[in-house]
Design a protein that fits this description.
The structure holds 2 protein chains of 2 kinds.
Chain A (H helix, E strand, L loop, with lengths): L1 H28 L4 H10 E2 L13 H6 L2 H4 L5 H13 L13 H9 L18 H4 L19 H5 L3 H12 L21 H12 L8
Helix pairs in contact in A: 6-10, 9-10
Chain B lengths: L1 H24 L3 H12 L5 H13 L30 E3 L4 E3 L1 H11 L5 H6 L5 H15 L13 H14 L10 H5 L4 E3 L2 E3 L5 H8 L4 E3 L4 E3 L1 H11 L4 E2 L4 H13 L9 E3 L1
Parallel strand pairs in B: 5-8
Antiparallel strand pairs in B: 1-2, 3-4, 5-6
Chain lengths: 212, 270
């Protein structure tokens, strides 16, 4: 009887080790450093629309703030978890329409405005796409943090698979790459459904200057 | 005669290769900006701030009607030359690591009896902030050409560096940005603006070594605190508090990474 108890205890303990240890690894990435937390808390004040809630990190931001761990082999399981959380949050277009108006899309891609403490709550937020991507080649003022999107549709076609992938990527890039540099436009309501449809057209519509 | 001819053809080749290189290589936007910078480099308007700052340093002011001539920026009371090249650093009297601007606030408080809260709360470019900005221009000009040499020997300095490193990678806001989103890789740019990789010695020197700077686009002299403030604004973060440990820690991270580079302040920026 006693023996049996000990045996089950041992089994329990090994199970615990197997389950808890990887979790400990995950937690070990960003030790909760009270000094750092205090510094961040005392380092900012709310200003205009930029409240202190903006430094309350969600799981994705917390994970990606430790790039060494996030990119490591040990971080693999957590990366997949983060990607799943973000993938699950994506909604397909409510009207079933993926492609809007590329002309409007170009204007959204051009604007990098909005969401700073010098903006109003009703300042239209731009996609800021040209900040990081080459898109229409005619625009020479483009950034290089993201890949070039010139000829995006022309090179990739317009299969349903590609359309959904592109929709998802603009909505929430972290669904594919946990620590992608690209903002989660739908998740944080930076762009609405129609704006994303218009950006889709800029990339995929055969008539868009991007695909000439 | 022959020598003269050789010299003449050398000049000729030089002229041809120069005009060739300018027609081929000045096509990139960065080169155009560099050319523009060269054109206006002779008259950096920071000089006006610097002159005003020197006056403010030497003129009695504040409730105690005292000058800042005894202010210790880390090289002893009143030593201005080279002071900016070794900041931020640990100061025994405050038991804190301080950057130039937080240290100046300490001096203005202890020597002149001024209230640091008024300086922290004032908007950039006006009132007491304007005074600090001018003094900063004076101090950093006196380090131009020096080597950046920031210490992390004191445990508090080492700690500040580590805190700054962590803050550099801290993601937040509705766009998930951290400093590293833009300044963590080589050869990137936003629109046409080149982004120094502040995690490397070369990149950190391009950033830390050239700020504070006169900003042509705003027609203002910007201190490092204002530069950091505007970075956070564009990151869509809340407002970083002037002279806070957060801003000093980030400065410590950049400055230490830039060690060995040359101080080029006051810089001249877009």
């Amino acid at each position: 009887m006693k023996n049996k108890n000990i045996k089950s205890l041992l089994a329990c303990a090994s199970l615990l080790i197997a389950v808890v240890l990887p979790a400990c690894d995950v937690m070990a990435q960003q030790q909760n450093d009270p000094k750092f937390n205090k510094m961040m808390k005392e380092g900012f004040r709310a200003e205009g629309i930029a409240g202190l809630d903006r430094i309350q990190q969600d799981e994705t931001q917390k994970f990606c703030s430790d790039p060494v761990f996030a990119g490591s082999e040990k971080g693999q399981a957590m990366r997949e978890k983060i990607q799943k959380i973000n993938m699950d949050s994506i909604r397909q277009p409510s009207d079933g329409k993926y492609i809007g108006d590329w002309k409007k899309g170009e204007a959204i891609a051009q604007s990098g405005r909005g969401a700073t403490w010098t903006d109003k709550a009703d300042t239209p937020i731009g996609g800021g796409c040209y900040n990081c991507h080459q898109i229409d080649k005619k625009e020479i003022s483009y950034g290089t943090i993201g890949p070039s999107l010139w000829n995006y549709g022309k090179m990739r076609g317009n299969s349903q698979e590609l359309i959904v992938y592109t929709w998802n990527r603009i909505n929430n890039s972290k669904a594919y790459n946990a620590c992608s540099n690209m903002p989660r436009f739908a998740h944080f309501k930076l762009l609405n459904e129609q704006q994303i449809q218009d950006l889709m057209a800029l990339l995929l519509d055969p008539a868009s200057p991007v695909n000439q | 005669m022959q020598r003269k001819f050789a010299f003449g053809s050398a000049i000729g080749i030089l002229t041809v290769s120069l005009s060739f290189s300018s027609s081929v290589f000045s096509q990139t936007p960065s080169d155009e900006i560099a050319k523009y910078r060269e054109m206006i480099a002779d008259g950096n308007p920071s000089e006006l701030y610097e002159a005003a700052g020197e006056d403010l340093w030497k003129k009695p002011a504040g409730p105690k009607n005292a000058t800042l001539k005894k202010c210790d920026l880390g090289l002893g009371p009143g030593v201005v030359k080279g002071a900016a090249a070794q900041l931020p650093r640990y100061f025994k009297d405050t038991n804190k690591v301080q950057d130039l601007e937080s240290r100046l606030m300490t001096c203005m408080q202890t020597l002149q009896g001024r209230n640091p809260k008024e300086m922290v709360d004032a908007p950039f470019q006006v009132g007491p902030k304007k005074d600090i900005e001018a003094i900063v221009a004076y101090i950093v000009t006196a380090s131009k050409g020096e080597k950046i040499k920031v210490s992390t020997n004191h445990p508090k300095e080492k700690e500040m560096y580590e805190l700054g490193k962590r803050a550099f990678y801290f993601q937040g806001g509705p766009m998930d940005f951290s400093c590293a989103s833009c300044h963590g890789e080589d050869g990137k740019r936003i629109r046409l603006q080149d982004l120094p990789n502040l995690t490397t010695q070369k990149g950190a020197t391009l950033g830390w070594g050239y700020w504070p700077a006169y900003r042509v686009s705003s027609g203002q002299f910007w201190t490092m605190q204002q530069r950091l403030n505007d970075c956070y604004r564009q990151q869509r973060f809340p407002f970083p508090i002037y002279g806070s440990d957060l801003t000093v820690a980030l400065s410590m991270y950049m400055a230490k990474n830039a060690n060995g580079g040359t101080v080029e302040t006051p810089g001249l920026k877009r």
